[in-house]
Specification:
Helix content: 10-25%
CATH architecture: 4-Layer Sandwich
Distance between the termini: 6 Å
Oligomer: single chain
Largest sheet: 6 strands, mixed
CATH class: Alpha Beta
CATH topology: Deoxyribonuclease I, Chain A
Shape: globular
Number of helices: 5
Mean pLDDT: 95
């Protein structure tokens, strides 16, 4: 099974992103995307750069997959409230031939549509799918971690966020995959909480960075995205290719 996770940057690098998704569509079973927008209007852009209906545009690129959108916040862009209908969220796209037992999400910071005037108050949810693939049961989960506008270090909110995710994973039996833009420094307690009982493939494979050359901030801030798997997952191949489709790099996991 192949699973890909990517923070798509709201589709800002639209053509490159769609080309990347199309290239990997035939051999990828599950896509986990963060920073996804959806709208019922005809608006194409938000904050000048980002695709207002990137969810539907990706779905058109993946006719063999079914998209599942998990909304976080209505009528808010990257910086402020909008004057038109738009929803910010995360999404799973799962190959239609895969037996999907359940798709759900729950909030690990704040509550749906709970943003104030500060982007740092954007709520955060974890989306997960219980699937059966070649007779094996998997839990695949992803989330876009809290960003406070300052750094990726520990904070009480990040500790609580990790504890909510960890408590959920601990109740699950069988094969587990956790991916996403967690917005955490590699040496934080917030990440160590999630690593307990799991294998951090970013660390194990000695990945040097999960940020692309498009990342506009400090070059010292090299990590945001992680893939963690339970010890019963056989990771046959794991890569973080240096492609310029977002300010993040995709994580590609082939496992059983």
């Amino acid at each position: 099974m192949r699973v890909i996770s990517l923070n798509i940057w709201g589709g800002r690098r639209y053509r490159s992103l769609i080309e990347f998704i199309s290239k990997y569509s035939k051999n990828t079973d599950v896509f986990c995307f963060q920073e996804v927008f959806s709208t019922g209007t005809k608006r194409r852009l938000i904050d000048k750069f980002y695709r207002a209906n990137i969810f539907k545009e990706i779905q058109k690129t993946l006719p063999e997959h079914k998209g599942y959108f998990a909304p976080i916040q209505k009528n808010f862009g990257f910086k402020s409230h909008t004057d038109f209908d738009i929803t910010w969220g995360i999404a799973l796209f799962i190959r239609k031939i895969i037996n999907v037992k359940e798709i759900k999400d729950f909030f690990i910071f704040g509550k749906r549509d709970g943003v104030k005037n500060d982007p740092a108050t954007l709520p955060r949810n974890l989306q997960y799918a219980r699937i059966s693939h070649h007779g094996k049961k998997y839990l695949i989960a992803h989330f876009h971690g809290l960003f406070n506008g300052k750094d990726k270090l520990d904070s009480p909110d990040r500790i609580r966020q990790s504890m909510k995710v960890k408590n959920f994973l601990d109740k699950e039996k069988g094969k587990k995959i956790l991916m996403g833009d967690l917005n955490l420094h590699p040496e934080t307690d917030s990440l160590h909480i999630l690593e307990k009982g799991m294998i951090n493939l970013i660390k194990e494979k000695r990945v040097k960075t999960t940020r692309s050359g498009l990342y506009p901030y400090s070059k010292q801030d090299k990590f945001a995205d992680y893939t963690l798997v339970s010890k019963d997952i056989l990771a046959r191949h794991f890569s973080v290719p240096k492609v310029r489709v977002s300010d993040h790099l995709p994580m590609i996991l082939e496992c059983e």
